[in-house]
Amino acid sequence: MIVGMKNILLCASAALAACTPTPPTPIVRKEWRTLTTSQKADYINAVKCILAKPALSPEGSPPSPHGVISRYDNLVYTHIQQTYSVHYVGHFLAWHRLFTATYEKMLRNECGYIGAQPYWDWTLDAADITASPVLDPVTGFGGNGPWVPDDPTSWFPPVPGRTGGGCIVDGPFAGLSDVVHLGPGDSLAYNPQCLKRDLSPSFASRYLAMNQTQLTLSQPDFGWFNHIVEGEPSFDASGIHGGGHYGLGGSFGQMGDLHTSPADPIFHLHHANLDRVWASWQNLNPSVRLTDISGPSLMMNTSSPNVTLSWPLSVGVNGVDTTVGDVMKIDACGTGGSLCYTYDSFYTLL
Ligand SMILES: *[C@@H]1O[C@H](CO)[C@@H](O)[C@H](O)[C@H]1NC(C)=O
Ligand SMILES: *[C@@H]1O[C@H](CO)[C@@H](O)[C@H](O)[C@H]1NC(C)=O
Ligand SMILES: *[C@@H]1O[C@H](CO)[C@@H](O)[C@H](O)[C@H]1NC(C)=O
Ligand SMILES: [Cu+2]
């Protein structure tokens, strides 16, 4: 009775906010180069923390039949396992939106990171990605690896314009021979590797400049939009998605590996910007586009049923299973969706 009285008194006073549930405020994702040096260091330290933390069971070791050692590996494992069900499908962007938001939560809840997931606006760097602040040897993720010749035995053609291929030589992840534990390709066995990059400045300038981003934003409906984001599985008909993956990963870097790409921490900055392009496209006509979803449910299979808002999404042990409809609005914060972040700026049609 006395406690109840006290609550009523509190609610009537300045502490009103404690009684009326106010919706949470979205956290704000910012472009990497706009972070202060100490904010960049906080982010990199949180990434190092997830890389060092032991994996969650049952995938994790010990005892593990796989190479899932670190908490970070849980994410890479999830991506490898679902590679053929979340690329070149209608839920490609929705799944990767959830994946990046899941990583953001891991950094915040498990490693004390207080910021939001930064993004890489590649349109600012497309003219020369080698000079990107994201690749800075001191405040960024380090740059290219030394030259490795084309592999003549590979069934996959070399990425045009590739310039590196070896272990990265600078930045916070250089000199580590076991920072990557899974892959290459779909291998889930323990295979300690360094982080590799194989920059292709020409591939990046072709697909990551503002012109390609504008072409993407100008698409009339989600089906076309998604198709232009992903492009065709061909170096001659790629899109902004492949532009970032092959521009940084080339033939030998993890970023160029369809399965193991999240093993490079830059993956999440690239995918945050792809997500920002989608959110920007949605913002151009929100009443229609916040519910517009379509595209094949099976990889590149135009006869498979179109994906709908009730299509299921899973990130394995890293988060709770949900649906496409739940992630359509990035700043829903519990009102019609569980995501709760936004961007400091969006692209507009020029
Ligand atoms: C955009 O510009 C780049 C570099 O100038 C060029 O290679 C590419 O073909 C252009 N893309 C489009 C869609 O116009
Ligand atoms: C998927 O939807 C598109 C229009 O958004 C339509 O043209 C296509 O026929 C549909 N595909 C299937 C398999 O129903
Ligand atoms: C494409 O999807 C349809 C419908 O689900 C299925 O019958 C067909 O076998 C699939 N094609 C391939 C090549 O998997
Ligand atoms: Cu992916």
Overall description:
The chain is mainly alpha-helical. The protein has one domain (27-343): Di-copper center containing domain from catechol oxidase (di-copper center containing domain from catechol oxidase, Orthogonal Bundle), CATH 1.10.1280. The protein contains ten helices and four strands, in the order H-E-H-H-H-H-H-H-H-H-H-E-E-E. The protein has helices at residues 2-11, 37-52, 71-86, 92-111, 201-207, 210-217, 222-230, 240-249, 266-283, 286-289; strands at 27-29, 312-313, 322-323, 341-343. It has a two-stranded parallel ribbon with strand order 1-4. Helix 2 (37-52) crosses helix 4 (92-111). The radius of gyration is 21 Å and the shape is globular. Bound molecules: 2-acetamido-2-deoxy-beta-D-glucopyranose (3 copies) and copper (II) ion (CU). One 2-acetamido-2-deoxy-beta-D-glucopyranose binds next to loops.
| Uncertain stretches of 5 or more adjacent residues | 1-14
Termini separation comes to: 63 Å
Strand content: under 5%
Count up the helices: 10
Give the topology:
Elements: H1 2-11, E1 27-29, H2 37-52, H3 71-86, H4 92-111, H5 201-207, H6 210-217, H7 222-230, H8 240-249, H9 266-283, H10 286-289, E2 312-313, E3 322-323, E4 341-343
Domain Tyrosinase copper-binding: 87-104
Protein name: Tyrosinase
Keywords: Copper, Metal-binding, Signal
